[in-house]
Every structure is written in structure tokens, then in C-alpha cells.
Amino acid sequence: MVDDIDDSRSAGAALTASIELDKDKRGKARTVKPLRQLWPYITRYKAMVFAFLLFLILAAAMQLSIGLAVKVITDCGFVGDAQATADYCSRFSVGDDRKMGSYFKFAMLIGIGAAIFGALRFYFISVLGQRVIADIRIAVYNKLTRLSPEFFERVHTGEVLSRLTTDTTLIESVIGSSVSFAIRSIATSLGSLIIMFFISWKLALLVLLIGPIIILPTILIGRRIRTLSRSSQDNLAMASSRAGESLGAIQTVQAFTREDKERRAFSKAVENTFTAHRKRLLVRALMTLIIFGLGMSGMVGVFWYGAHEVQQFKASGGSTGMTSGDIFAFGIYAFSVVSGVGFLTGTWTELLRASGATERVMELLSEEPTIKAPSNPSVINKAGGKIRFKNVHFVYPSRPSEQALNNISFDIQEGETVALVGPSGAGKSTIFQVLLRFYDTQSGSVEVNNVEITKLTPQNLRQQFAIVQQNTPLFSGSAMENIRYGREGASDADVISAAKAAFAHDFISQLPEGYETDLGESAVTLSGGQRQRLAIARAILRDAPILLLDEATSALDAESERAVQKAFEDMSKTKTTLVIAHRLATVLKADRIIVMEDGKVVETGTHDELMSIDGLYARLAHLQFDTAAI
């Protein structure tokens, strides 16, 4: 159990690491216009948006009030000569400890208000971001499960998963934090700038002149830092990949005595990572030097001028210049403006990256499946297994010059067992793909129970089939869950009965927790034969009128194969069965054998009939076993 927890944590950590490594590699958009496409998802939660904007305004107002509070404390609490000119201090006596305490209490209340409203602002925008991204992820996954296999020929599964994870994470970070901080920075920076001009328009202009001097180097050097960061991440990914490969095949490494070679390769990758990190840190240190050097020098110059204004104020008896409180408040607002603008330069890059992510996610949501249900579909209500192919021509969209099926015609009667035989690439698996309507044919027709499959909904059509595939795709979870995948809601007794029919019950019972044992991702803890028998049990449980077997016994040993063949024979008595087999010994008892080559039907008949005409089937049979012994 502890190992399972550790494995899940490792898998989660690996996914998080891969998302972080992939973030900087995702392309940016030229503008932020694609972010508009998120608006319909955001406006679903108007109350949450209103709460965010309300607390944003209140938090900004409190934050802007802090500078004014500092001015009151400085002028009215500490500097006595300001009393002659500051109207807001005229009714207070200087040196009164109680009055001074009230100033600090007032400032504390402002600070507490800013903290409360800021926390509420953060909460509502963060929850909104999580809610919106959850809706988008659900919408994307729902769309992916409806798309036809043709889409996954055009777009790699890895890219699709990257859009579902990395791209949605980028959007989440923008909605949940970057946009919030950006709006807050804009509000407080503009408010601070306005107040600065009221305090001293001369000093405000000086700050505006200093800003570009600080911001431009930040932008230029920041680009170089991002480039070096990407380089260091690439090297780190290479080192991790190398380590994963060698440790995953450690027995092979040691068997070929290549430990030194792998150590050298890993050390080189790590050293490259260190070099890239050192360059990045050097550039970042340079940027810190420039920003702090220019920023501090500029701000000291501004305050130098402000100090001169304060002295002039004192010398004039309060008729001209600035108070001490003015200069302190001005400093607070100046820092707010400079830091806010600096944050916005970094946020702009994040917005562009999120804009690119939004484009990629919305591309998925705009995809339409090529296989669609008709507007007025027919329905197969009665179980039956009649199949007809009539003059079917088909090419895969990704291979338009290659004829996968060429004028295919055959009929399969209900309850009949038919085998599809032929060399690799003959079109046998394509028959299954077309029959399940994963693809539509270019011409000809395919019927199930005398109804053209294009007149049925894909769901109604596929309910007529149970399939056992050669690569035995299973899922993480228990043996019970994997078998029950064939028929949702099936009882435990039905699952166990199906497992017994597939001769899987014995090995399942010997697992640590029996049918409830977690089999790991893709059931990797099982052998190929065990996984195959689980897939067969799943098909048995589905109890559909048509059974499709694609090399269903290829991973079984001789004894298990005979047992499973007996199970298939029992099933075939009440079902139509279509079998793909390369091992011809598995199709000897078929009612009929259809021999295919280059997408065509070249021979049809029983085993004995096909052997007698000495055609392709006979040649294939001679390659596999001695016909005299049959």
C-alpha cells in the first residue's frame, strides 16, 4: 500500500515536472486577442466576477490610503512645524500622546482593511480561475472523446495531452493570478501616479523619467534570461531522460558492462545543465545590479530634490514647498508605481503565452468529429448479427494514395463464425475499423441487421459489438473494474462468471486482494497472457450479438489457448463471430474463411475447400504447418 502511494506521488511529481518543463516551450501569441475566447466561460459566474471587482476596488482604495496615513502620522505626529500650515492638523495639539496613538490606530485600520479586502480579492479570482479551467478541461476532454480516430492521425496524442495539461495550466495561472495582479497593479499605479501629481508634479515627472531607464533593461535582459532558462530546462530534461532510460534498463546496462558509458553520458548532461544555470544566474545578477543601481540612484536623486523642497517649506514658514509627510507619502506612491509597472512587463509575457495556450485549446474545442449521427437515425432494437459489405472502397485519410479496401463484398449470416485471413496489410483490421464506423467508406455500403451503419448513431451501432484486440488495452484499477468495463452496472457475480469463462478466475483469485487488486497503469503488473484473458472476460461480459476477435489468443500459451478457444466456441453458438488470425490453427473450425490480399477478397471457403484450390491460403498454411498432419 505504501509503495502504491509512493508510486502515485512519483507519477504526480513527474507530471508536474513535465508541465513545468513544457511551459516555456509553448509558443506565444502575437496579441492577447485570443484571450477573449475565455470570456464566455468567465461570464458564467457573474456573481464571482462582481465580488472580485468589488474587493479589488476596496483593496486598491485601502492600499492608496496607506500613503496618506503616513503623511498624517509624519506631519501631525512627529513634525511640529507643519502644524502652522496643515489644516488637517490644526485642531490637534502637538505632543499629545493620545492623539499620536489615534494616528497609528487609523493607519493600522487601513492596513487591516487592505489585507482583508486583498485576501477576498485573491480568493474570488483564484476560485474563479480554478472553476473556469475546470470547465475548460471538462469541455476539452468531452470533445476529445467524441472526435474520430482520423483526428488522432493528424494530431499526436502527446500534443493533445500537452494542451490538456500544460496549456490549461498556463491559462489557469493567468486567470487565477496574473490577471488579478495585473489589474491591481494598473489600479494602484494609476491611483498612485495621480496622487503623486497632486503632491508634487515636478517630482512626479522626475519619476516618470526614471521609469523607462529601469524598465527597458529589465525587458531586454529578461528575454536573455528566458532563453537561458529554456536551455537549462532542456539540458535538465535530457539528463533526466538519460537517467530514466538507463535505470529502467539497468540489467541490460550491467549485462553489457556499459556502466561507465552511462555515467559519463549522465555527467555530461548534468554539467551542461550546470553551465546553462550559471550563465542564467550571471545575467540575473547583472540585471539586479542594473535595476537596483539605477533605481536606487534615481530614487535618491528624487528624494534629494524632495528634501530641498522640504527645507524650502520650513524656510518659507509653510507658504511654499513640501512637508515631511508629503515626501514620505510620495516615496510610497513612487515605489508603488515603479514596482507595479515592473510587474506588468513580466505579466505581459505571461499573457502572450496564455494567449497562445488559449488558441491551442480553442482549436481542440472547435474540432468537429468526422463521424456523426444522422439527424433522424434508425435504431437497432433486436439483437442480431447479420453483416453485409457491398462494393466497399476505403482509403485512410492519412494515406490517400493507398487503397486499404478495394471493392469488398461479402455477407455474414447471424450466428456464423467467419475468419479473416491474409498477410499483414491485407485489410483485415480495416474491416473492423469500418464495421465499427471509426471511419466512413468512400463508396459502397456496410449493413448490420439490414440497416446501413451510416443511418445509425455510432453509439447504437457499437452496442452491437464486443471486441478483443491484439494489444489488449486495459486500464488502471482493479481486475473487477477492468472486466466490468464491458458492461457498466454488471454484478460481481456476472464479472466472476465472465472471468471463469475466459479462464481468468484462477490467476485473479491468487492476486493479493483477488478481484480488487490494483493492477497498475495499463495493468502492467500482469503478463501478456493474463491481460489477454482479462480482455476476453470483458468481451464475454458485454454479451453483444457480434463478437470481433483480433488475434485474441496471440499472447496465450498452448494450454490457455485451447481453453479460451473452447470458451469462444461456446460463445459462438449464440453469436456472430468475426475472427482475424495469423495463426491458421485457430480458424480451422470456422464456418467460412475469407482470404484477403492488398485490400481485396481473393478466396472464400472452408479450410478444406481452400486447401484444395492451392491458392494464397494454401501457401500460408504450408508456411505454418504440415498440411498432411491436419
Total helix count?
Answer: 19
The gyration radius over C-alpha positions equals: 36 Å
Give the total of beta strands: 10
Q: What is the CA–CA distance across the termini?
A: 52 Å
Strand content: 5-15%
Low-confidence stretches: 1-15, 81-86, 91-95
Folded structure, characterized:
The chain is of the alpha/beta class and 630 residues long. The protein contains 19 helices and 10 strands. It has helices at residues 2-23, 39-42, 46-78, 97-146, 149-154, 157-199, 201-248, 250-255, 259-315, 324-366, 428-435, 458-462, 479-484, 492-501, 505-509, 528-542, 558-572, 607-612, 616-624, and strands at 387-394, 405-412, 417-421, 443-448, 451-452, 465-468, 546-550, 576-580, 592-597, 600-605. The strands form 2 sheets. It has a 6-stranded mixed sheet, with helices on both faces. A 4-stranded antiparallel sheet has the order 2-1-4-5, with helices on one face. It is elongated and about 120 Å long. The two termini are 52 Å apart.
Descriptive labels:
single chain, 630 residues, alpha/beta, six-stranded mixed β-sheet, four-stranded antiparallel β-sheet, 9% strand, elongated, disordered N terminus
